[in-house]
Give the backbone structure.
Amino acid sequence: MQKAGFVYIMTTITNSVLYVGVTSTLSQRVWQHRTKYYPNCFTAKYNCVKLVYYYRFDTIAEAIAGEKRLKSRSRAFKIVLIKKRNPDWKDLWEEINE
């Protein structure tokens, strides 16, 4: 049985920068971004600490393909995607840890 995967979008407190990522362990990966576990990575440098979107795929391979598709889309497309599922741009950290 293959692991599930997630595509997710992180942003700053002011929603000014968007970061698209992929992982098989969403809670752990978001915690790493929030705590700047990897201080030299993009999310640490730009202070992307708020999870505003995520989508679960059945396999990590599907998630990787989904990440590539999403990264190729415009910022405007990503904003529409976020607003459809999270109109107030709330931090979804608590939701993924319920």
About this structure: Strands lie at 5-11, 18-23, 50-57. The mean pLDDT is 97. The domain at 5-95 is CATH 3.40.1440.10 (GIY-YIG endonuclease).
